[in-house]
Write a structure and sequence with these properties.
single chain; alpha+beta; four-stranded mixed beta sheet; 4 helices; 31% helix
C-alpha cells in the first residue's frame, strides 16, 4: 500500500523541483519520510473540555498534557517517548512557510519550555512575541512513557 503513495509523492517532488517550489518540495520530502517511519501515530481530536488530555496522559502513563476545567491544551501537541523529559514550543513565521518574495522555507523557531511550565506551553501563552511576527503553531513534549501498572 505504501508503494502507491511513495510513487505519488515522488512524482509530486519532481513537479515541485521543475517549478522551483523548494517550500513544497520540503513538505513532500517530510511526508515521504513520515510514511516510511515505523513509529505509530495516533491523532486525538474532539470538542474542547472532553478529556482528550487526560486520555493522552493515561495512554502514555505520564503527565504530558495538563488537565483542568478551562481550555488547557489549545495547541496541537506532539507527544513522544524519551529517556529524559523535555518540552518545546514551536513557533512558525506568520507568512505560511516562505520568506517574503522567495521560495525559501522559513525555519520554525523552537523554544525549550521548563517542565514546570508545560501547561503554559500547550495553552499557547508561553513565548508569544509582540507584533505577531511569529505564531505559536504547536508544542512538543517528550516523556518517559510506559505501560500503566
Amino acid at each position: 500500500m505504501a508503494g502507491i503513495w511513495l510513487d505519488a509523492l515522488d512524482e509530486i517532488a519532481r513537479t515541485c523541483r521543475e517549478h522551483g517550489r523548494a517550500d513544497l518540495l520540503l513538505a513532500v520530502r517530510q511526508k515521504r519520510a513520515q510514511l516510511l517511519d515505523p513509529k505509530l501515530r495516533v491523532l486525538v481530536i474532539g470538542e474542547p473540555n472532553q478529556g482528550k488530555s487526560q486520555l493522552v496522559n493515561a495512554i502514555v502513563n505520564a503527565p504530558v498534557c495538563p488537565v483542568g476545567d478551562g481550555r488547557t491544551t489549545v495547541l496541537p501537541t506532539v507527544v513522544q517517548h524519551a529517556e529524559v523529559a523535555s518540552a518545546t514550543v514551536v513557533q512558525a513565521a506568520s507568512a505560511p512557510g516562505r520568506a517574503a518574495g522567495t521560495s525559501v522555507p522559513v525555519p520554525a523557531e523552537r523554544t525549550p519550555v521548563p517542565l514546570d511550565q508545560i501547561a503554559a506551553g500547550v495553552a499557547g501563552t508561553l513565548g508569544r512575541r509582540p507584533g505577531g511576527v511569529r505564531r505559536t503553531s504547536r508544542s512538543d513534549c517528550r516523556a518517559r512513557c510506559s505501560a500503566p501498572d
